[in-house]
Amino acid sequence: MGASAVKPGSLSRREFLGVSGQAGLGAWGVMAGGGALLAGQAGAAQREAVGGVREIHLEAREMTWEIAPGKRIKAMGYNGQIPGPELRLREGERVRIVLKNALPEPTTIHWHGVDVPNSMDGVPGITQKPVQPGETFTYEFEATPAGTRWYHTHFQEHKQLDLGLYAPLIIEPARPDPFPFDREYSLVLDDWATGTGRPLPGTGEGTAAGRGGMGRMMKGMMGRGGMGGMMGAGGEPVYDTMTINGKAYPATQPLKIRKGERVRLRLINASADTTHVIRLAGHRLNVTHTDGNPLMQPVEVDVVPLAPAERYDVAFLADRPGAWFVYCTQPGHSGAGEQVLLVYEGHETDEAQAPVEGTAGLRLWRYNLGQGLEILPHPSGQERFFDLTLNGGMMGSDVWTINGRQYPQTDPLRLRKGDLARVRFRNQSMEAHPMHLHGQSFKVLSVNGQRLPASIVKDTVDVEAHMGSVVVEFTAHNPGDWFFHCHKPMHMEGGMITLAKIG
Ligand code: C2O
Ligand code: CU
């Protein structure tokens, strides 16, 4: 950080955020007073109060994106950037977001982790018609609950999400933050099939209890090697490039901090298929939020695995001046671009030690380490139990099922508002499935038969391969038809979707 950097303590947190947003994210900063907004580098999104409702404009369009120095790819982005503009909302605030579709194909936006009204949920064919090329669609909702959320396309995600239609959505708590910080950065992780690099082994497995497995690794070696194109065996994309905030190292934008600061990183995995295991060299990380929802107290670990669509807020005290890499420990990932420098002021020319692959001897985050807060609405209705067996992908097939059926043949979870739904997932397939519920969050009660000491709150839970199991529970408080699906687009496309019908 240069001489123009602000002194911590000399500005309010909101002002400070504005500065860090400009410096680090190239996205949006919030100015003091909370009214105006600084447009980021793209500058196209506008925000103004219209009758007390904040209005934001997003345009989805095709674009060329320089993913790494000299490496340009055809992509899709919101307002010409990847990730799209980071939206920062105040908890409880009403927002109107006008999506203009400048793509040559339909699209929609889903507000992942936000308790929106059903008609604003962005699921084509269920909650809205696809937004056709040239059309606009206006989303309007109240920003709740607070936390690290994100937004992304929900139309042909295996293509559109893969090409860059995603961005962070941060809802700042109305009450004081339980874990205050001086500076923050959002880091959005993504896997890319550019057809130009060496295919990476699919090692994404088992974030739930760290048990891991070899299924994906084997598949990676057997089915994915040597194709050199966009698609591998079984029609799955071959991921060869890994990015942080849309860029592969050395194009990743360094994160600047100052000694003594409490820094929060908001980790968001926007990948279609890949689990990332994130480490900050020289520091331990304190997990404070799971999918945006606060824990009772931080959990200190060395590395944090994130399945697709998962988010973790992690905090650390900046007490080891120097230059350090934030990176993924999965084999090949840092080399494929997934590393970003974290530089203390005054250490801009320091040499950072190279990333070390693997997690031997390191403490990994696991679901059962966290103790969640009781933040979900209390039930007032019946208790209902659902047993969902996840299966598919046999012999490389692209059929993925819940209780033996492919969506739309899957049985919906029928609930009344106020009911307490308990869902047990059992995974009989060879791949992990990050299961995501729209419209409301759930508690994770147990993982692989082991009860959590105090259930954590999430909206996406990774069910491990090879007989992994997870039990979640939620109060059906948001009426409507809600997707409950595997967040890997190929699996979703293959049928691993059911509906929670809340009447
Ligand atoms: Cu983040 Cu149905 O999606
Ligand atoms: Cu899946």
Summarize the topology.
Layout: H1 13-25, E1 29-30, E2 37-38, E3 47-50, E4 53-68, E5 71-78, E6 87-90, E7 94-101, E8 109-112, E9 136-142, E10 147-153, H2 157-160, E11 166-172, E12 183-192, H3 215-224, E13 241-244, E14 255-257, E15 262-269, E16 276-280, E17 285-290, E18 293-301, E19 303-306, E20 311-317, E21 323-328, E22 339-344, E23 383-392, E24 400-402, E25 413-415, E26 420-427, E27 433-437, E28 442-447, E29 450-458, E30 460-463, E31 469-475, E32 480-486, H4 489-493, E33 497-502
Bound molecules: CU-O-CU linkage (C2O) and copper (II) ion.
Residues 110, 112, 152, 154, 309, 436, 438, 483, 485, 487 line the site of CU-O-CU linkage.
Describe the structure in your own words.
This protein is mainly beta and 503 residues long. The protein has three domains: 8-177, Immunoglobulin-like, CATH 2.60.40; 189-367, Sandwich (Immunoglobulin-like), CATH 2.60.40.420; 383-502, Cupredoxins -  blue copper proteins (Immunoglobulin-like, Sandwich). It is 6% helix and 41% strand. It contains four helices and 33 strands. The strands form seven sheets. It has a six-stranded mixed sheet with strand order 13-12-15-20-17-18, covered by helices on one side. The protein has a six-stranded mixed sheet with strand order 24-23-26-31-28-29. Strands 3, 4, 5, 7 and 9 form a five-stranded mixed sheet that branches. It is globular, with a radius of gyration of 21 Å. Copper (II) ion (CU) binds at residues 431, 433, 486, 488, 491, 496.
